[in-house]
Prior knowledge:
By secondary structure, the chain is mainly alpha-helical. Helices cover 53% and strands 6% of the residues. It has two domains: 3-191 and 304-334, HUPs (Rossmann fold, 3-Layer(aba) Sandwich), CATH 3.40.50.620; 211-299, Tyrosyl-Transfer RNA Synthetase (Orthogonal Bundle). The protein is built from 13 helices and five strands. Strands 1-2-3 form a three-stranded parallel β-sheet. α4 packs across α7 (131-145), α4 runs parallel beside α13 (305-334) and α7 (131-145) packs across α8 (159-176).
Amino acid sequence: MTDQTKSPVTRPIVFSGAQPTGQLTIGNYFGALQHWVATQEANDCLFCIVDLHALTVRQNPAELRQRCLELAALYLACGLDPQRSILFIQSHVPAHTELAWLLNTFTQIGELERMTQFKDKAQRHKHNVNAGLFTYPVLMAADILLYGTHKVPVGEDQKQHLELTRDVAVRFNNLYGEVFQIPEPLIAAEGARVKDLQEPTKKMSKSAESELARVMILDPPKEILKKFKKAVTDSLAQIRFDEAGQPGVTNLLDLWCVATGRPRAEALEHFGHNLYGKLKVETAEAVIAQLEPVQQRYQALIDDRAELTKILEEGAARARARAEPVMRKTMSALGLPLDRGRFP
Ligand code: ATP
Ligand code: LTN
């Protein structure tokens, strides 16, 4: 039996999400979205727009609403297919926050204090270190565990959150029996850690201060070329993979590999003893070529608000139904009453 002919029930369940906190970068694309598209073939996938996570940093309400739609259009433009996968907005499925509350009581403060994303964000948003920022990983654990997820395709930066999710699920199961499926992270060998073009020791982030630091999926080709030409490298004048000694050059080489689909050895052969100019320009060209079809599809999709809304509403209805069995099992395990109307 081929994967396509297997029923959704027997295919592994995949869950992932991105925050509608701004335009997505090529880090999000090569680290996550590109892999999500590929996983649709053989898996039963749910892809979420995690608007509740975005609230951990202050958002403008009208912009947040618009960004959810833009992110939905981008999901579709990248190739996520609402016929095959469930695409939805997190806040449309109340079970995410319900389960998050229950899981809060199985998560230790010390565990959350160790999360590097919390430490980074608390540092960057000193005036608003809210409790939601602190318990962000618990809501993420709820997202994942709610659907009996087997695999979670994410970038390297999310590995620690996945480990916490697993720890919480194992802890719960040890106390109450096999309620949660223990999920595995799916972190690609390439593209999982795209670096900031100006400070190549840091991950490329949507919210980086300098615009030159990040390349957006929807940046016009001219912009992309400009940003790559200004990328920080070094003065060693040698092309090699050396993350510690030459992070800028290594990042460009890795991006060239991921955008062309060619292996590292070929990159070294191709760029040989050239100066960095060729590396910058050709990496930009490879990235532009990858993004061009996505950009074209996006323009056609973003104006059709009615269609986007319909896809998201249908996705949410399917997700709500899918979330119910785990929610029931969890409540039952904890001794919570099951007759509260929503669960006949
Ligand atoms: P923010 O910068 O606002 O915190 P983010 O881009 O880190 O946002 P998400 O939008 O939630 O966060 O990320 C969606 C996916 O993109 C996640 O799977 C994440 O691991 C991946 N990702 C984000 N940045 C990179 C990067 N630089 N390289 C590879 N993958 C990344
Ligand atoms: N925290 C993730 C986004 C996210 C997520 C998830 C990813 C929220 N819930 C569930 C995978 C599975 C981030 O990338 N910042």
